[in-house]
Amino acid sequence: MNSPDVTAILRLLSDKSRIRILDVLLDGRAYSVNEITTFTKIKQHTVSYHLKLLTEGNLTAVKQYGKFRYYFISDTITPQLLEILSSFSPEEPTRSLNQYVAKKELKQARTCYDHIAGELGVKIRGFLTSRNMLAADQDHLDSYVLTAEGEKYFKENLSIDVDALKKKKRKFCINCLDWSERKNHIAGSVGKAILDFLEQNKYITRSPGSRAVKITNAGRAFLKKEWHIVLSGE
User: Which of 55, 101, 148, 185 has the most neighbouring CB atoms within 10 Å?
Assistant: First the structure.
C-alpha cells in the first residue's frame, strides 16, 4: 500500500498568494472571487486560478448562489493544519505601521475558522480550566470534557445548550495549538459556541477580510468581570 502523497498538499501551501487567500477564508465565512480580490490585493484572474487549485486539493470548497460562486473552508482540518504549520513558521518582518497594528490585533484576538484564537482564546481556556469547568479527557489526549460545574455554567450563565452541542457530528471540545501564543485554545463545538456567544452579545465585532476580532467596551467589561481576563496592553 502506497503512503499518501503529502507533497501534493505541501505544494499547494508553498505559494504565498494561496496562503493569503486561505487566511481570508479562515474567518469561517464564504467569499466571492471579487471579495477575495479586494481583501488580498491579488489580481482577479490569479485569485480564480489559485482557488481552482485549492478546491481541487480539497482545502477549499465552493457553492453557487445565483450567478455568484462563493468559496469557503468546509471543515476543521484545513484551519488546524495551517495553525500548526504557523506555529513552526518564522514571522514575516513588519515593514509599516499598518502591518504592525494588524499583526498586534491578530495576536490579541482572532478567529480560527469557527472559534476564538490568539491571546483571548488561550485565556478563555485558562479561565475554564482554572475554575474546573473544563478538564482533560482521559480517553482522548487532544480533547477536553465539560465538568458538571462547566455544563451548569454554560447552560445557566451563557445560555448555551450543551446537550445540543454533544449531538453535533463533530468533535465536542478539542485542543488547537495557537501559533502566536504557542499554547492551546479551544476548538470543536464548544469553541464555536463560545465564539457565537461573544458575537451574539456584541462583546466582539468582526470585519470582512480579516480574522482579527475587535473587543467592544461591553466585551472588555464582561471579560474582566466574569472571566477575569485582561489582555496585554489594556
Answer: 185
Residues 6+ away with beta carbon under 8 Å from 44: 33, 34, 37
- The three-point CA angle 50-52-57 to 5° equals 95
C-alpha span between 174 and 194 (Å, rounded): 13
Write out pLDDT tens, residues 137-183.
888 878 999 999 999 999 999 999 999 999 988 889 998 888 888 89
Q: Which residues contact 179 (CB under 8 A, 6 or more apart)?
A: 83, 84, 86, 87, 89
Phi, psi of 204, rounded to the nearest 5 degrees = -135, 160
Q: Give the distance from CA 15 to its chain's centroid.
A: 21
CA distance 46 to 61: 17
Return the ∠ at Cα 197 (arms to 33 and 204), rounded to 5°. Answer: 60
Decide: 206 and 199 in contact? Cβ < 8 Å. yes
- How far, in Å, CA of 55 to CA of 44, rounded? 16
Give the three cell numbers for residue 127: 479561565
pTM of the model: 0.80
C-alpha distances out from residue 151 to 48, 51, 154, Å: 45, 41, 5
Cross-strand partners of 110:
117, 212
Give the phi and the psi of residue 124 in degrees, each rounded to 5.
-65, -45
Question: With 0-12 CB in 10 A as exposed, 13-18 as middle and 19+ as buried, what is 163?
Answer: exposed
Residue showing cell 489580481? 43
